[in-house]
Amino acid sequence: MNVEYEAFLLLLILLPLNIAFALPKKGTEAPNFLAPTYGGGSISLYKLKGKIVVLMFAAEWCPHCRREIPTLSSAWKEMGLEVKDVIGIVMIVSSQEDKAIRFFKATNPPSNWELVTDANYIAEKYGVSGVPTVIVLDKNSAVADVKVGEVPPGTILRTVALLAGISPPEVNNTQTQTQTKSTVTYASTPSQSTTTKERSESKGMSMGVMMLIALAVIVLLIFGLWYFKTLKAHETKKLKKKKKYKKSK
């Protein structure tokens, strides 16, 4: 068994982990989706070609989302993004439908925002493992920007405004800029309150997941190397015995 073959087998072992947590890269075509929206309609990315699409992955129990999505809503209106060739879609994950709807309404959403109350499968297609995550798509459904964690709204919407041909005004980001860029894993158990202790713990969730993934990769790598070295040694030993047996004859 040669080195190239060993490397290929190791790649097959590790590749699923890389794919599972891979966000789409800038310039690549975004995966298509079809999902029901709040209000009884449905929405698909294929039918949105020709529009600038902003996918906002959030959870109603996520403290960072509770801050970021309302500030995005206010900044969206302030920047004049309530135009026909721009659409925002709030993708709620790991949340109950009634709570997702209340969360959406509380953000005072712009007129061109839509709500998907159960976007778990879409989050998986897009490699989203933590919220909030915002993905901006251009009119050709290509990824124009990806922002992970709680960030000032201007850093997200400036890209949208430029794609729409709107000169982005200065937005008041004072409150958001004082906060740390943080995410919580969307697969986590929904929080019932947002105490200081819970917020502190949630900031470390995504880092903990990343550490577990890194540890799993290291363990798999060590196991793979050990296994193939052992197999190679066994084959070498078997070959020597075979040669010895032929000589004795």
Question: Could you give a short description of this structure?
Answer:
By secondary structure, the chain is of the alpha/beta class.
Folded structure, characterized:
The chain has 249 residues and is α/β, with parallel strands linked by helices. The protein has one domain: Glutaredoxin. 47% of the residues lie in helices and 16% in strands. The protein contains 8 helices and 9 strands. The chain has helices spanning 3-20, 63-78, 97-106, 120-125, 153-163, 174-177, 196-203, 205-248; strands at 34-36, 42-44, 52-58, 86-92, 113-116, 130-131, 133-137, 143-148, 184-185. The strands form 3 sheets. Strands 5-4-3-7-8 form a 5-stranded mixed β-sheet. The longest helix is centred in the last third of the chain and has 44 residues, at 205-248.
Name its key features.
single chain; 249 residues; alpha/beta; Glutaredoxin; 5-stranded mixed sheet; two-stranded antiparallel ribbon; 8 helices; 16% strand; elongated
- Shape verdict: elongated
Counted up, domains total 1
**CATH architecture level-2 label:** 3-Layer(aba) Sandwich
CATH superfamily: Glutaredoxin
Structural class: alpha/beta
Mean pLDDT: 79
Look up the CATH topology.
Glutaredoxin
Summarize the helix and strand pattern as letters: HEEEHEHEHEEEHHEHH
Helix content: 40-55%
Low-confidence stretches: 3-20, 173-180, 188-207
| Straight-line N-to-C gap | 28 Å
Number of β-strand runs: 9
Report the major sheet.
5 strands, mixed
